[in-house]
Amino acid sequence: MHVIINGSDLGRQRGGNESYLVGLLDGLAAVIEQTGIRISLIVASEGARLAATRAAWHRFVAINIGPYRRLPYLAWQQTGILRDLRPDWLVSTFFLPPVIPCRAAVLVHDLSFRAHPDYFPGSIAAYMRLLTGLAIRRAEAVVALSEFTRQEIQRFYPAASEKTAVVYPGVGGDFHPQGNPEDARVLATLGVERPYLLAVGNIHPRKNLDRLLDAWDWLRRSGKPVPRMVWAGLGRWESSDLLTVARASGVQLLGFVEQAFLPALYRQSEAFVYPSLYEGFGLPPLEAMACGTPTLVSDATSLPEAVGDAAVLVDASNLDTFTQGLARVLFDPDLRDALRLRGPVHAARFRWERTAQQLLETLGESSPSPR
User: Fold this and answer.
1) Among 37, 124, 180, 325, which has the minimal tally of Cβ within 10 Å of its Cβ?
2) Are 162 and 85 contained in the same domain?
3) Which domain holds residue 232?
């Protein structure tokens, strides 16, 4: 079986979409030699530069189509490559090209643009709804990153229920509790000093970081020894006012942080906080827990499914309960010790090799029976 993967998000600082693809490809590189499956990767110039740094990806055929341009990329570049190479499957995130001369699977991270279009500029919510809806209807296999997202697909696209499978993301081997001297060098490179409270992820309304800022400020005013706060992630839609307030409050804003730096950043933090109000899975909390970092997350959408009993879950829409949860994860020593032990055990259930194997099994099960 020959599978082509749309890697258009690679190398473009695309947050969770890019992190997922990097992990999936690492997992595929580890398992394809046992399967005889061929993997080709369509990338723009930015992705080709990233691929050149990943030694394990030499197992893939990388097809560099030049600088990323959305409309040509979707409209004819992928279709032309598919016609030339005649693969069995195209696997793509959210969108599919208009003409698909092979079978297609679409990866759906979440449906926040359907459930909460108010989180997005109107034009972005509209094109996501149009193009993702078309992809889900046209795909022969739909891959949801969690049971919650599978249920959302069933809610908004009930006709796709029978062809939807859950394939959980994974955590790479670099995310572990054992610190090393390289951690200090990473923090020095980023200009981060301990102790600090950490949040990771793109900064936009559904991430609920304004509530985190309010809780942090309340604890500081109460006189508690609250550590400084560090946010790693790019500002997205309608985030400029929040970033201005956060900067004025003393939050250290790192912007985009390379994947290689994240394990040290998680490991050396006092706690990790993820108050998001809508997630399709929630990869950063899982990475933090794999590093043994006490973790606080919202109890909304997919996050309880992602973290199990290895993190503190709170109603992040309520300032009082969220502030109480933040205080516990920072100042309760018994709880912190328990979370440090539970986190890596829980995260060990999620590995990219397993993700890759389950994706390939999903494609195989969706293939037509031999005649």
Assistant:
1) 180
2) yes
3) 181-347
**How far is it, in rounded angstroms, from Cα 255 to Cα 201?**
9
Residues 41 and 158 both lie in one domain? yes
Q: Do 250 and 143 reside in the same domain of the chain?
A: no
Q: Report helix angle 333-347 to 283-290, nearest 10.
A: 110
Domain match, 282 and 159 both: no
CATH number at residue 33: 3.40.50.2000
pTM over 0.90: yes
pLDDT of residue 74: 57
Measured torsion, CA atoms of residues 126, 284, 34, 150, in degrees rounded to the nearest 10:
-40
Cβ contact 224:327 at 8 Å: yes
Write down how long the chain is: 371
* pLDDT single digits (tens) 151-177: 999 999 999 999 999 999 999 999 999
What region, left, alpha or beta, does residue 108 occupy, with left being phi > 0 and alpha being psi -120 to 50 degrees? beta
What is the tally of structural domains in the chain? 2
CB 115 within 8 A of CB 268: no
Q: Reduced to 3 states, what is the DSSP secondary structure of residue 202? A: coil
Q: Does 176 reside within a domain?
A: no
Euclidean distance between CA atoms 280 and 110, whole angstroms: 4
Would you state the pLDDT for residue 370? Answer: 39
Tell me the one-letter amino acid at 10.
Answer: L
Asked if residues 262 and 200 have their Cβ atoms less than 8 Å apart, the reply is yes
Q: Please tell me whether residue 21 adopts helix, strand or coil conformation.
A: helix
Q: CA 286 to CA 291: how far, in whole Å?
A: 9
